[in-house]
From TrEMBL:
It comes from Streptomyces vastus. Residues 540-662 form the Helicase XPB/Ssl2 N-terminal domain. Residues 1-23 are annotated as: Disordered. It comes from the Bacteria. GO terms for molecular function: helicase activity. Residues 762-824 form the WYL domain. InterPro entries: WYL_dom, XPB/Ssl2_N. This is Helicase-associated domain-containing protein. Keywords: ATP-binding, Helicase, Hydrolase, Nucleotide-binding.
C-alpha cells in the first residue's frame, strides 16, 4: 500500500550530541543506521524481540547472557583489550589502555592493532565513551575484573585501594612509615600515597633495590598470577619485609596478594605476559600440483557416493533396530563397519552424513528400525555431481558431530550414532572456517594442522586462562574432525582444498553463507566437479577363474545386476566380483532364466564368456526348481522319487522332520523358509512355489520410511537477521526512541511521569486540532493485549471513535481506537518540524 503524504518524519540521521555521551544509550543514539545494523548482525540476540527504543537496546546489551555470548565471539587481541580495560581505571584514557597492552617499552604491533580491536569492542557495544573516557560495559567489567573467586585472565590481583579496604588505619600508617613515606591524617590519603609510590617507576625501582633477593623471588612467583599466596601466622623474614612495605597485602587470614600496581611495575606495565595483536599465520605443510589435488579429491568424492549407496543398499530391506533411547547399537555399528570395510568411526561418519542429507531415518513402526527415505530414490536418479553436492552441503551445515560417537555425555552415557546428544552448534562455523583458512593458502597447499588450530584459537580463544593450552577442547577436536571429514568427502585432496571445494565458499571466503548463497555455491562446485568424475563403464572383464573385473565405476543397471549375479570379492581401483553357485541361484530366484544370464554376460563383457562360467550357470539352472516347496505347513514336491529318497536317507534332513505323503511329495514339520534354507544347505537347489504351483520370484523388497525431512541444525544462538528484518527493526527502534525522548509541551501531570493522562474530551479536541495544523503528537497507547507504549503520530482524520494517523513507530498509516489512547501531548517546538518524505 502506498504511504500517504504527511508533513512530519523522523530525521534519517540521528542528531549528534553536542557533549560526550553520558551512557551507552546516548552513544547508541548517536550512531547511524549502518552502525546499528552492524551491531544487531554481530549480536542478533539483541533484537529477539525487537527493543522498543535505544534505551532498552542498551539495557539488553548489558545483560549477562548477552555479554558472555559477545565476549565468546571476540578474537584474542580484542579480548585482551577488554581484559586490559577491566583492570584499568574506570574510565580509562586511550593512552592508559595502550600502556597496559604495549608495556613501558612500547610495541609497534600493539600500537597498530589497538584501534581495530577498540573499534570491534565499540561496534559490539562492549565499550563506549570517547578516547579520553573509555568505559567497559559494567557486566563485562564484572566478568573480566579480578576477584578472589574469579581470577582475571591477566593474572592481576586487586588494587591497593581494594586490598586495603578492610585494613585498620593504624596498620596502613605503619606501612607508609616502613616504605619511607610520611604518615597522613586519614586512611584515604594514605592509600593514595601508597598507590602513587607503586605507580612511580623511579621510586619503585629504588624501593625494590633495597629488597632481599629471596623477597624478590617471592614476588617473581606471584607477578604473572595467580596473585594470591599462603602465609603462616608468623611469616618468614622474606615475607615480613614485603608485608611491612605493602608489597604484599593480607586479604584473608593466611592469604596475601600482590597489589595490581606492584605487579604492573614488575611486568614493565604489561597487563598480559604475552600480548597477541596479530593472528598467527597458517603455515603450508606440503604443496602439490593443483591438478593432482583435484583428481584425488574427485576420486574420493566418487568413493563417498559409492559408500553411501552401499550403506543404504545394505539397509534396503530394513536396517538395524532403533535403540530404546534412540540411535544405533554398538553391535550394529560394528556390523556396518565390516560391511563397508572401514573403521567404526568412519562408518559412523557415513551413517550420520546420510542422516544429515535426509537419505536415512527411522521408520516409526512398532518394531522401529532404520531405513532409506523416499528422498534416497530421488537422490539416486540425480547426476553424480549433484548427488555429491547434496552430501557436501549437508555436511557443511549439519550440527551433528560424528566424531563424538563412542564418547560419553555429561551423565556418563555412551553417545551412539544416530542417537541424541551429538549436536554441537559450533560445528558448521568451525568447518567453514577451516575451509576458509585452507582457501587462503596457495592452490595445492595443505596446512600444518597445528598452525591452523593455533589460528582458530586466536580467532576464538578460551576465556579460561587454564584452558588456553588445552588440545582437547571442543573447537580443536571439531577442527581436526573437519580436516579428516573434508578429505573423506572429497572437498580436499591430499590435505589441500580442491577447486570444487573452494567453490563451496563465499567470496570472500570469510563471509558466512545464507541458504540461497549456499545453493548457488553448491551448484558452482558441482559444475567444476562433474568433468573430474570418472565416466561409468558399461562392460566388465570376465575371467576363467569365475571372476569379473570392473576396471572402474559401472553404469547403474550393470552394477545392480552384477551385484545380484556375483559377490564382491575385493574393492579398490578395480572391483572384483566372484560367481558362485549361490550367487547364480540368487539371480535365478530373482526371476532371471539361464538364457537371460548368458545374454547379459555376453552383452556386457569385453572378453568372451569363459566356458567354466557358462557351465556354472547351466548346472545351477538345471537343478534350480527341480524340487518345489510350498505351504502345508511345508512340503517338498519332485517328479524324481529317487531324489526324494536321497533326501530322506540323508541324516542332515532329520531336523526338517520329513515324511513321505506320496511318491513325489514329502511333508515337513518346518515352515517353507526354513525348509528352503535346509535343503540348500544340503546341496540341493529347490525353488519356492505359490499355492497355484507357480515358481515364486524372490525379489528384494525395498523398505522405505514415510517421507522425512533432513534434521534441522541446532543453532548456536538466534539467527543472524537478514537485511529486511534489520531495516524494519532499526526503523521501529528509532521511532520508539523518538516517542520516548521527544520533548513535549506541558500537559496534565502523569503518575510517575509515565504515560500522559488526558480526558476523552481533551484527547479528541487535541486530535482534531492536529488534523487541521498537521502537528505531530505524542500519545500513550494500550493495545488489545494490555501492553502500553508511547508513540509519535501525525493525525490525518478523526471520525467514528477512531483516529487515522501516520505512526512513526510502525512507519505506516494506522487507525487507533480513541478509547485506547490514555492521553496526548503536543511535541515541543524544538522537536519540529520533522521532514516529510
Amino acid at each position: 500500500m502506498g504511504r500517504m503524504s504527511v508533513n512530519h518524519r523522523p530525521p534519517e540521521e540521528p542528531a549528534q550530541p553536542s557533549a560526550a555521551p553520558r551512557s551507552l544509550a546516548e552513544q547508541l543514539r548517536a550512531r547511524d543506521d549502518a552502525s546499528l545494523a552492524a551491531l544487531l548482525q554481530v549480536r542478533p540476540d539483541l533484537i529477539t524481540p525487537v527493543p522498543t527504543d535505544l534505551t532498552q537496546l542498551a539495557t539488553r546489551a548489558g545483560t549477562r547472557a548477552s555479554v558472555v555470548r559477545a565476549l565468546e565471539h571476540l578474537d584474542r587481541f580484542a579480548l585482551q583489550t577488554a581484559e586490559a580495560l577491566a583492570v584499568a581505571p574506570d574510565p580509562a584514557a586511550y593512552d592508559t589502555l595502550l600502556a597496559l597492552l604495549a608495556g613501558d617499552e612500547g610495541d609497534p604491533e600493539v600500537t597498530g592493532a589497538l584501534p581495530r580491536a577498540l573499534a570491534t569492542l565499540r561496534e559490539q557495544a562492549l565499550v563506549w565513551g570517547a578516547d579520553d573516557r573509555l568505559r567497559l560495559v559494567r557486566t563485562a567489567r564484572e566478568l573480566l575484573a579480578p576477584s578472589p573467586q574469579h581470577p582475571s585472565p591477566t593474572g592481576l590481583g586487586p588494587t591497593v585501594a581494594e586490598a586495603t579496604a578492610g585494613m585498620s588505619p593504624g596498620r596502613i600508617q605503619e606501612i607508609l612509615a616502613t616504605a619511607g613515606l610520611p604518615t597522613t591524617h586519614d586512611a584515604v590519603s594514605a592509600v593514595a600515597a601508597l598507590t602513587e609510590l607503586f605507580t612511580d617507576r623511579t621510586r619503585m625501582r629504588a624501593l625494590l633495590d633495597e629488597a632481599p633477593a629471596d623477597s624478590l623471588e617471592v614476588l617473581s612467583r606471584l607477578v604473572w598470577g595467580p596473585p594470591y599466596g599462603q602465609v603462616t601466622a608468623d611469616p618468614a623474614p622474606r615475607l615480613r619485609w614485603l608485608l611491612d612495605r605493602g608489597l604484599l597485602l593480607p586479604t584473608a587470614p593466611g592469604t596475601v596478594v600482590i597489589p595490581r600496581e606492584v605487579a604492573l611495575h614488575l611486568r614493565a606495565g604489561r597487563a598480559h605476559r604475552k600480548t597477541e595483536p596479530l593472528p598467527p599465520a597458517v603455515e603450508p605443510a606440503v604443496t602439490h600440483r593443483p591438478q593432482a589435488v583435484d583428481a584425488t579429491a574427485a576420486g574420493q568424492a566418487y568413493t563417498a557416493l559409492a559408500t553411501v549407496e552401499e550403506l543404504l543398499k545394505d539397509w534396503d530391506e530394513g536396517g538395524p533396530a532403533v535403540l530404546r533411547a534412540g540411535g544405533l547399537s554398538v553391535r550394529d555399528l560394528k556390523r556396518t563397519a565390516v560391511a563397508l570395510d572401514v573403521p567404526e568411526p568412519i562408518a559412523a561418519f557415513w551413517i550420520e552424513l546420510a542422516y544429515a542429507a535426509g537419505l536415512l531415518a527411522s521408520d516409526d513402526e512398532a518394531d522401529e528400525q532404520y531405513a532409506a527415505t523416499p528422498a534416497y530414490d530421488a537422490w539416486l536418479e540425480l547426476p553424480a555431481a549433484e548427488r555429491w553436492t547434496r552430501l557436501a552441503t549437508a555436511w557443511l551445515t549439519a550440527t551433528r558431530t560424528p566424531g563424538l560417537v563412542g564418547g560419553r555425555d555429561a551423565k556418563d552415557r555412551t553417545l551412539s550414532a544416530l542417537g541424541p546428544g551429538l549436536d554441537r552448534s559450533a560445528a558448521p562455523e568451525v568447518r567453514h572456517r577451516v575451509l576458509a583458512l585452507l582457501a587462503a593458502l596457495p592452490e595445492g597447499a595443505s596446512a600444518a594442522a597445528d598452525s591452523l588450530i593455533a589460528r582458530l584459537h586466536w580467532e576464538r580463544p578460551l576465556r579460561n586462562p587454564e584452558s588456553q593450552a588445552r588440545t582437547d577442547d571442543l573447537r580443536t577436536r571439531l577442527a581436526r574432525w573437519a580436516l579428516s571429514e573434508a578429505e573423506l568427502l572429497g572437498i580436499t585432496g591430499r590435505g589441500a582444498l580442491s577447486t570444487h571445494g573452494r567453490a563451496l565458499l563465499a567470496t570472500p571466503p570469510d563471509a558466512p553463507l545464507t541458504g540461497a548463497e549456499l545453493a548457488a555455491a553448491a551448484s558452482r562446485a558441482g559444475r567444476l566437479l562433474a568433468p573430474l568424475l570418472p565416466t561409468p563403464l558399461g562392460h566388465v572383464l570376465l575371467q576363467a577363474d569365475l571372476t569379473a573385473v570392473a576396471p572402474g565405476p559401472l553404469e547403474r543397471p550393470l552394477a545392480d545386476m552384477l551385484g545380484v549375479l556375483a559377490d564382491v570379492e575385493s574393492k579398490g581401483g578395480a572391483t572384483v566380483y566372484r560367481f558362485t553357485p549361490g550367487s547364480v541361484r540368487r539371480a535365478l530366484d530373482a526371476g532371471r532364466s539361464a538364457s537371460d544370464l548368458h545374454a547379459f554376460l555376453a552383452a556386457h563383457s569385453s572378453t568372451p564368456v569363459p566356458q567354466p562360467l557358462t557351465y556354472l550357470i547351466d548346472d545351477v539352472a538345471r537343478r534350480h526348481g527341480h524340487l518345489r516347496i510350498g505351504a502345508a505347513s511345508a512340503y517338498v514336491r519332485c517328479d524324481d522319487d529317487a531324489m526324494l529318497n536321497e533326501i530322506l536317507a540323508d541324516k542332515r534332513s532329520a531336523d526338517l522332520r520329513l515324511r513321505r505323503l506320496a511318491p513325489t511329495v514329502l511333508a515337513a514339520g518346518t515352515d517353507p523358509a526354513t525348509l528352503l534354507e535346509g535343503l540348500r544347505a544340503m546341496g540341493f537347489a529347490p525353488a519356492a512355489e505359490s499355492t497355484e504351483g507357480d515358481v515364486l520370484i524372490a525379489r528384494a523388497h525395498a523398505h522405505r520410511t514415510p517421507p522425512r525431512t533432513a534434521p534441522e541444525p541446532v543453532p548456536e544462538g538466534p539467527p543472524v537477521p537478514d537485511a529486511t528484518l534489520l531495516t524494519a527493526a532499526i526503523r521501529a527502534i528509532r521511532a520508539g526512541d523518538l516517542a520516548s525522548t521527544a520533548p513535549r509541551k506541558a500537559a496534565a501531570p502523569a503518575a510517575n511521569g509515565s504515560l500522559p493522562r488526558t480526558t476523552s474530551a481533551e484527547t479528541l479536541a487535541t486530535m482534531q486540532a492536529a488534523v487541521l495544523t498537521g502537528e505531530p503528537l505524542w500519545i500513550g497507547y494500550v493495545n488489545a493485549e494490555g501492553s502500553a507504549s508511547q508513540r509519535v503520530i501525525a493525525p490525518i482524520r478523526v471520525e467514528g471513535g477512531f483516529v487515522t494517523a501516520y505512526d512513526h513507530t510502525a512507519d505506516e498509516v494506522r487507525t487507533f481506537p480513541l478509547h485506547r489512547i490514555t492521553g496526548v501531548a503536543e511535541l515541543a517546538d524544538e522537536n519540529a518540524p520533522l521532514e516529510a518524505q
